[in-house]
């Protein structure tokens, strides 16, 4: 049950007003003590009040420990500033580390591309040397073949790969220059902000156990627009470079396959030359046997022809039978009994002479064929040796175990 007051409200309010006045007078001398909020915020509030030069009333009398209180507040502000600076340095170093890692990746790609470019130039030199070496073949071995087409295709592919690698190297050099400038800026900011961390013996991480880091680094806020701009530019640059197309590594593989196909083609051409040379050698042996048989037959036919001609004089002792022998003279006593012996002898001699002429022509043709086969055999041997030498040159060039060819 509520108790109804008896006294008047004015009388009661006057008493409580006196109580509140006494209470305020009791607390006023100690109003300069630090509150529960951070000393850094207190100092900032005091700075703002000093700049505004606003006075809300008579200043209270400072306590006896005023100097110690100010030193403690300034030390707390310095520690908070260094803690936030350390957090900023950590973020800057992280951005610097990411930039360095991207630079290292680009440097590795550049080294790979430089080696690929050097290998491409070496392969182009090997291609030219192969063409020069094959140009020393005999004229009969210079007919266009698949190896020539493969060599031309390899040359075109190497030229395309060389231009592609040079474009990639130029692009990587441009990206590295941009990243070097960003790294230089970030490094300078790290050094500048690290100058206030010389006397701090705490961990370099932004937070440590038992210690609270102020939320939101003020050093990366509006007061440090240069740092924010540098990190933002570095991050955007890395993202843009990461989205760019990497080098097309399939082209070196295709060129390697084409180079192997050229080497295999040279070996196959050498094997074909070897097989054809074996066939030419067999044909040359058969032609030599035929020439020997034809020469023996020609000599026998020539001796028979000489015998058919008979002696040069009737006084020759080797004359066996004469056309005016007694038997023929007795037979010729009757008219119309002429023997065709002389006519047949003349016809046989003429036919034998004609056969000797054909045999001489055939021997001449056989000798010409023998010379051509011998020349073709030598040319095939030289072509085989040159193709095998070109294949060995390309194999050693791939392994890097040879000197350059000098022709």
TrEMBL record:
<protein>
    <recommendedName>
        <fullName>Tektin</fullName>
    </recommendedName>
</protein>
<feature type="compositionally biased region" description="Polar residues">
    <location>
        <begin position="32"/>
        <end position="43"/>
    </location>
</feature>
<dbReference type="InterPro" id="IPR038949">
    <property type="entry name" value="TEKTL1"/>
</dbReference>
<feature type="compositionally biased region" description="Polar residues">
    <location>
        <begin position="204"/>
        <end position="216"/>
    </location>
</feature>
<feature type="region of interest" description="Disordered">
    <location>
        <begin position="202"/>
        <end position="224"/>
    </location>
</feature>
<feature type="region of interest" description="Disordered">
    <location>
        <begin position="30"/>
        <end position="68"/>
    </location>
</feature>
<feature type="compositionally biased region" description="Basic and acidic residues">
    <location>
        <begin position="44"/>
        <end position="55"/>
    </location>
</feature>
<dbReference type="GO" id="GO:0005737">
    <property type="term" value="C:cytoplasm"/>
</dbReference>
<dbReference type="Pfam" id="PF03148">
    <property type="entry name" value="Tektin"/>
</dbReference>
<keyword id="KW-0963">Cytoplasm</keyword>
<dbReference type="InterPro" id="IPR048256">
    <property type="entry name" value="Tektin-like"/>
</dbReference>
<dbReference type="GO" id="GO:0005929">
    <property type="term" value="C:cilium"/>
</dbReference>
